[in-house]
Design goal:
Distance between the termini: 45 Å
Number of strands: 0
Largest sheet: none
Number of helices: 6
Oligomer: single chain
Length: 181
């Protein structure tokens, strides 16, 4: 039975409520039942290491990062060129230690960026799955509704294909997205 506080007593709402297999008064469901709410999933995935990685990635892609490194390089080179006195020099030209430090930093930064990109790819995959399921569900419903209304599905498909072809001819869509006939 529908929850009385929801107040959806029409047959269509009942069908929507039963779509997820549970009659609970909700006219929506998680489109990916094994995953649930995408935001909740993403929050679970983002543990402390992920937050650190995202923080480093965010900072490394910012102008303050460029400014800090510019100052660091200028100071390093100035100190090691003897500008502040020969007693402070610790990395003689051609600055091998600086090269080593910068190389190690590049390795770690690229790793942090890859970690963040992989997690973003996982989020995109979840969204893509949800989009696919939404599109499939909408298409199935549209065909059934159209059939009940007596609309010729073949005619509609022909109009859609001609419209997409015209849109592509105008250069709006990539040639790679041509629908299969």
């Amino acid at each position: 039975m529908l929850r009385s506080d929801v107040g959806h007593d029409c047959p269509a709402c009942r069908v929507l409520d039963l779509a997820d297999g549970v009659e609970d008064g909700r006219l929506y469901r998680s489109l990916v039942p094994r995953i649930g709410d995408e935001r909740r999933l993403i929050r679970k995935v983002r543990d402390t290491q992920d937050k650190i990685s995202d923080g480093i990635t965010t900072f490394s892609g910012s102008m303050p990062f460029v400014y800090v490194h510019s100052v660091w390089f200028v100071l390093w080179i100035a100190i090691n060129a003897g500008v502040f006195g020969a007693s402070l020099v610790f990395d003689h030209f051609p600055f091998g230690l600086l090269t080593l430090v910068v190389s190690l930093e590049a390795i770690f930064l690229s790793t942090f960026i890859l970690i963040s990109q992989n997690r973003q790819a996982e989020r995109s995959e979840v969204r893509s799955q949800i989009d696919f399921e939404n599109n499939l569900r909408a298409e199935v419903w549209a065909v059934h509704v159209g059939q009940v209304l007596g609309i010729d599905a073949d005619h509609v498909e022909a109009v859609i294909r001609r419209s997409i072809a015209g849109y592509m001819e105008d250069g709006h869509l990539s040639r790679l997205s041509t629908p299969a006939n």
